[in-house]
Amino acid sequence: MNFLSTSEFDLGSLIESAMRFKAGDDRAKPLTGKSVALVFFNPSLRTRASMQVGIYELGGNAVVLEPGGTSWTLEHRAGAVMDGDRTEHVAEFVRVLERYWVAIGVRTFAALKNWEEERTDPVLKAFAKYASVPIINLESAMHHPCQAAADMMTIREKLGAGRKRVVLTWAWHPKPLPMAVPNSFALAAAQMGHDLVIAHPPGYELDEELIQTARRHSNVEITNDIDAAFDGAEVVYAKSWGAKQFYGNADRDISERAQFRDKWIVDEEKMSRTDNGIFMHCLPVRRNVIVTDAVIDSHSSVVIDEAENRLHVQKAVLAKIL
Ligand code: CP
């Protein structure tokens, strides 16, 4: 059983399990004597540290591998003629790893070069194709399910069970970023039955197919009006992402987004129009760019609890799939 996106899981029962781990009511060690590989193509603080600690707390051993850094560069394309700079194919990499490890976590960001290709998550899918052990998505081009599960757990902890008015807002950032976090947050919020409002400037739409899937679960409103979006919000989730239309041309995205810098930031004025809304962000966050100091340092900010909950939900995921 893989964990590639939240849509494959019952998030409610996953969160219940995570809350038992957090409360100390579940001390099971299903990984005793077992090892898990964590493959990072990209940098990480929270994901790497919380996975290592979580695997240890479940009795297991985590080994971090960095293709192109401390391990060989990797090719993922089937049929590739490997006469370039990639030394090893995922086909061998994965089948060797699973002789040592019972699961493989993979982080592989979008390169923001080719939307149609990257939206299919080719690197993550190659791991899943060749593996016979579970693959855990630690953030791919399209999804960050561990983050989204921790986000839903945090909303449940802070505001209780039941439908909430949840606002996912784009924020200005000096360069285009991948859209895995907002995609997974939107999907997971809809799966939990929340009323979801997605606010972004024109041209910064999320993946259409993903939005259609979210709409099968719950109400999804999309607006270009950031002020109206904040009215009555119980949750404000800020994230920046790149425009699909500018994949492969970062400079055009950077010049397009310049007009949104002053308006698309989470500040006290906007938060004052929420319904005592909590402020959320996956971190890392650029202070006074995405969110002002006054908001992230306020009592409404839950970003540190949100990061802690990564540990608990990932233990629940590991306990479930292993
Ligand atoms: N939120 C998150 O995934 O953090 P890292 O990139 O530091 O792992």
Write the layout of secondary structure elements.
Layout: H1 11-23, E1 35-40, H2 46-57, E2 61-65, E3 74-75, E4 88-89, H3 90-100, E5 103-107, H4 115-118, H5 122-130, E6 135-137, H6 145-159, E7 165-170, H7 180-191, E8 195-199, H8 208-217, E9 220-223, H9 226-230, E10 235-239, H10 250-257, H11 268-271, E11 278-280, H12 293-296, H13 303-321
Helix pairs in contact: 1-6, 1-13, 2-13, 6-7, 6-13, 7-8
Bound molecules: phosphoric acid mono(formamide)ester (CP).
The site of phosphoric acid mono(formamide)ester has 9 residues, from α2.
- Number of beta strands: 11
What general outline do the C-alpha atoms trace? globular
Can you tell me the residue ranges where pLDDT is under 50 for at least 5 consecutive residues?
none
Strand content: 5-15%
Radius of gyration: 19 Å
Average pLDDT value? 97
- Characterize the main sheet: 5 strands, parallel
Structural class: alpha/beta
Structural write-up:
This protein starts with 10 loop residues before the first helix and ends with a helix. The longest helix has 19 residues, at 303-321. Strands 9-8-7-10-11 form a five-stranded parallel β-sheet. The mean pLDDT is 97. Helix 1 packs across helix 6. The protein is built from 13 helices and eleven strands. It is globular. It has 322 residues and is α/β, with parallel strands linked by helices. Strand 8, helix 8 and strand 9 (220-223) form a beta-alpha-beta unit. The chain binds phosphoric acid mono(formamide)ester. Residues 44-47, 139, 147, 282-284 line the site of phosphoric acid mono(formamide)ester. Phosphoric acid mono(formamide)ester binds at residues 44-47, 139, 147, 282-284.
